[in-house]
Protein 1
Amino acid sequence: MSFTTNIDETLKDIAESITLNDSRIQKFKSSYNAVLDLLKKDEEFFAKYEKLINIFPQGSARLGTTIKPENDDFDLDLVIHIDLPYQNFSFQDIYKHLWRVLSTDGTYSSMVTPKKRCIRIDYKSDNYHMDILPALSFDQSNKNRLAVPDRKEHKWTVSNPEDFAEWFKNKATFFALREDFSKSLDISEFTKSNDNPLKSAIKILKMYRNQYYVGEKEELKIPSIIITTLAAHSYNNGTSISTILKDFIAYCKKGKQDGSIYHFCNPIEKNEIYSERWEDNSEIYHAFTGFLDNLEKQLNQLVQEKDDTLRESIIKSMVSVENYDSGFRYFSENQKRLRKANNDFDSLKVLSEPKTPFHKPYLG
């Protein structure tokens, strides 16, 4: 069987082949634990609240939709949540303390970059970065509602990655990864590859996004959270990845039929507006509609094409040659395992079959 004979299986193999290997997992764990140890030693601020601090991953690492970005690093998004009322602090306080600890340390001073809401640590030699988001409690009746500092808007903003993850859990398989501040984060679950169709489809969408938004379009690229949320909204519990992609396109196009900007938020946190980026810049939204049209065109070509070679060409243009090759290797390895299993089964079958009785020849 050719790699591209079954389109859905091809896309599934490509998606499942893009996982974090053991080496990458160990580097993440080592980096996380080193930062954790540094914060625990900070007597000026963090050590005082050790028992009130939780650290947990958010984003694609949390949801199991991580891909390898084109010409970029892997990323790990972490939240440092201190269970204290945000009203007791200015929006800059917790950010400044995290920046102080990292930027004055001999190891991290040349690795950190301030972002709008987080602080990024670049591990350039290992090709990945870690974004750390500091947060306080926004609502004492729901500890999952977080107040995060927005340096651009100069205010606290609400975020709720925990309840979003729970919402996503009802749509797709996910692995909860949360530990107390005093413990080491166990991220071994990242190695699991039993993706469900929705997660595989989201990976394909993110790969396609990276292929589409190149050159001048790069600055208009839609964030992963928008793809993930809209894909989950449009998911109808199907198993066909190509159908999930079609449902995604139809859902998004339905939302913009009247020509207005599509407004949507975190499905369980109405104050966390996911579409704010393109509401502030209509060019981003119009680029997204072009992204949908182009995806629909290529997907229709792929489904209608009968020639395996041409299918291969279309898929490569959608997900990149590198990701296609990764999927092909994954497919080939699975085929080898399947053949070996079949051979082993045939061997056992032969050994278990009753032998034909041996009769001495009649000598008369």
Note: Residues 174-183, 188-193, 356-364 have pLDDT under 50 and may be disordered.
Protein 2
Amino acid sequence: MEYNYPFSELIGALTIKQIKEVKKPDKDLLEDIQKITHDIDSIIEEKDLKLSAELIRLVIYLAQMDCHIWTCQDQMDEHPDDYDKHLRMKHQINGFRNQIKNKISVYTGDTIGHSNDSPDGLSWEISI
């Protein structure tokens, strides 16, 4: 394996790389994506993970949260007067993101836990 990360961290890294691939194309991203997907495949094989609707939903949720975080960062860059508002939103969304990664970790039997898993007042109703 190229990286020594748990499954949930690799999924998170993959979603971010894919967002970058769409928003800021760079040939070097493909190599990183291939390494990450190789490691994901290795873990799936090693742990004999079965695909389920729950896992698919969690991965989709994680990708959505990463897109929202990316949008907040864009807003921070484009509207410096609202920087704090968008920074707070990023922090809140990251709480959901960490909840999702924690659930993926449980699904895969990893013991990693992300401590900042509070959306800190963000009242999105998502079923994770």
Note: The chain is about 70% helix and 0% strand.
Protein 3
Amino acid sequence: MPMEHGDQTDISSREVSRIRSVYRERERVLPRKANPDQTNQGYQWLVREYHDRLERILRERLPGSLSNCRVLDVGCGYGSLLGWLHGLGIPAANLFGVDLIPDRIKIAREMFPDFTFVEGNAERFDFPDDYFDLVPVFTVFSSILDPAMAKNVAQNISRVLVRDGAVVWYDMRYPNPWNPNLRAMTKRRIGELFPSFTLALESISLLPPLARQLGRHTDQVYPLLALPPIHSYVSYPRRRLSPPFTAPYENAILSR
């Protein structure tokens, strides 16, 4: 029997509550200020790796100047990716972020008062159609366990993306048996969420749990381990008819 609209709203509401609960517990166990990843050598190497790859992709593939690029970071967290993009030359007025977690949006607004941050569900944000050139979704869809909600988010992203724009995807492509709140985002799942997009997938990041253990040997060991069989992530897809695009981080990229 077809699902009524109200029923789907209830399911999405429950999924939103579950996601918020998971992140509240994560913040309780590991507060942002005490997060060891901020000083962990292996993890910081991983971050530099995907930043370098993303910068190269943006400068090679995005038409025109970055100063004309309008960005929506879905699942923006504390706004650090937008801050990094601002450092590449994208104006503050062109940088937007949306996140479900109120505390993260509060901190993002304090850290980057000139950017636009929206607290809310990415199924229903109110940005105009064909408005953004680039939509990063970093570790977003692996956190959404409800397929219907994931589909709604993907459709809303497609709506606000310009015709020659791109979705930059970074996410887990392997399951984590110790974390039931994540699901692996395979090529098939990505294609189902964005069926009208062309996918360009690339494995990039070393498994974070392994990177975190490298310690003072990071500079010597990370490059040796950074091989496709050990990498845990893919790249990204883009829209059909748009110029080829590739991206880094944990999962994939899409373009129409």
Note: Residues 5-29 form the longest helix (25 residues).
